[in-house]
Amino acid sequence: MAKEFSHLDGPLRQFIEAQAMFFVATAPSDGGRVNLSPKGYQDTFAVLDDHTVAYLDLFGSGVETISHLRENGRITLMFCSFTRNSRILRLYGTGRVVRPDDPEFAGLRANFGLEHPGIRAVIVVEVERIADACGYSVPYYDFAGERPVLDAHHARQPDEKFARRITGDNGHSIDGLPALDLDHPLPSEMRR
């Protein structure tokens, strides 16, 4: 039933591209809350090579993924088929946060589709384990379309509001770990 793969080959990439959403799971190292987030907009995910993927991280209601990645880097991505062909695919790896002010950001941004307002970062994941599962108990759902609400909301926001969120509700995780707080630079910024 379950199978492990050595790399992201053509059929796995086609499966990933066919999914309208994916899920991201992270956790702090010592106690704290596990975070599990659904992600939409199909053009916000990209397979960069056989062992590297990335996705656009848009401003949202929390910043747990970024906080957890800054602390320990552990991340799992899950793609789940809701069609007649059942399948679950998990990508286990180490993630890092690339903010828009990082020189690497522009090159990474070129891997994604439409321009989305409210881009907070690109999350890059070095995939260490690729495994699927049957998904036999996952129900069938029909994809009706992408929900434009987040993009529409972000398009109405002034840049100043995003800047305030960096030190406000996006400054720390719910467990108090630093996220976008500029007083706590990302590890890559500390090397500069």
Sum up the structure in keywords.
192 residues, alpha+beta, Pnp Oxidase, Chain A, eight-stranded antiparallel β-sheet, 6 helices, oxidoreductase, pyridoxamine phosphate oxidase activity, Pyridox_Oxase_N, EC 1.-.-.-
Describe the structure.
This protein has helices at 10-18, 64-71, 105-109, 149-155, 159-167, 187-190, and strands at 3-5, 22-26, 35-39, 45-49, 52-58, 74-80, 88-98, 119-133. The protein is built from six helices and eight strands; from the N terminus they run βαββββαββαβααα. By secondary structure, the protein is an alpha+beta fold. The N and C termini lie far apart (47 Å). Helices cover 22% and strands 30% of the residues. Strands 1, 2, 3, 4, 5, 6, 7 and 8 form an eight-stranded antiparallel β-sheet that branches. The protein has a single domain (3-137, 146-179), classed as Pnp Oxidase, Chain A (Roll). Mean pLDDT is 89; it is low at 187-192. It comes from Nocardia fusca. This is Pyridoxamine 5'-phosphate oxidase family protein. It is an enzyme of class 1 (oxidoreductase).
- Content-based structural category: alpha+beta
Order of helices and strands: EHEEEEHEEHEHHH
Count helical runs: 6
Q: What fraction of residues sit in β-strands?
A: 25-35%
Distance between the first and last residues' Cα: 47 Å
How many discrete domains?
Answer: 1
Radius of gyration: 17 Å
Largest sheet: 8 strands, antiparallel
User: Mind telling me the CATH superfamily name?
Assistant: Electron Transport, Fmn-binding Protein, Chain A
Indicate the CATH class.
Mainly Beta
CATH architectural category: Roll
CATH topology: Pnp Oxidase, Chain A
Helix content: 10-25%
Overall geometry comes to globular
Q: Could you report the average pLDDT, rounded to the nearest whole number?
A: 89
E-strand count:
8
Low-confidence stretches: 187-192
Protein name: Pyridoxamine 5'-phosphate oxidase family protein
Enzyme class: oxidoreductase
Keywords: Oxidoreductase
Domain Pyridoxamine 5'-phosphate oxidase N-terminal: 12-131
